[in-house]
Amino acid sequence: MTLLVTAASGHLGRLVLDSLLDRGVDPDTIRAGARQPESLAAYSERGVQAVPLDYGVPASVTAAVDGADRVLLISGSEVGQRVEQHARVIDAAAAAGVQQLVYTSAPQATTSPLVLAPEHKATEEHLAASGVPATVLRNNWYTENYADDLEVAREHGVLVTSAGDGRVPSASRADFAEGAAVVLTTDGHVGQVYELAGDVAWDFATLAQAMSEVLGREVALQQLSPEERLAQLQSVGLDAGTAGFVVALEGNIRDGILDHADGTLSRLIGRPTTPLVDGLRALTP
Questions:
Q1: pTM above 0.85?
Q2: Which is the most buried residue in 5, 7, 44, 135, by most CB within 10 A?
Q3: What are the structural domains of the chain?
Q4: Which positions ≥6 away from 259 have C-beta within 8 Å?
Q5: For 49-102, what is each residue's pLDDT tens digit?
Q6: 44: buried, middle or exposed (CB in 10 Å: 19+, 13-18, 0-12)?
């Protein structure tokens, strides 16, 4: 059986490769697709097949998917282009007779007002219409999303947000990667939609406390209004579009859109998800 991991050179993709190898999967059966397959040399040396795969180059998608039995479609990073890019992989999988396509989506993608949801919703709809046997992994927040905030806290002793009392059930990216590896290597997941999240939903006061523990210094929480947050982000160099996107995400969190954790991820991987403090500590030098 050949397992294809797309976007394999990214943060999540590399962790999926690690998890597959840790689970004892034969490296010869793992195909790792990347825009620059040479960036996966360390995996190639272990026997993994590194192949060209660029979502924007249809021929590379077709070639990479051909002959794969199970495909992990890791969602692209180019907002605004992802529906078309994902559809190329899905259509190639349909044409190749792939037995299972696993897609990394967003929390409650088909019903959520989350600013990130629309492209994932459209992808899920295309996947359903394609007829390809599928599993959808709706990944909640990665603890690593707060790496930049941790560095700001290290330097200035402050965590700034407009998320109010919103709660985030984050887990480490490695937890989500392990979940994907389990779904790729065990049976019974076709047709399932998994809402994956950390075991504990924390608020931003808790995040500030966790940062204090990890950094060994007091980190104060500074709550701003959306308008104040937008101005603050632009004052530190973010362009208006990016700043607005961050404020919209924090508004989603403030509205409780991410606050749902039912233990699905920990049951899938057979252990508790990585605690917030441990996830942050892994980000420190």
A1: yes
A2: 5
A3: 3-139 (3.40.50.720)
A4: 166, 167, 168, 169, 201
A5: 999 999 999 999 999 999 999 999 999 988 889 999 999 999 999 999 999 999
A6: middle
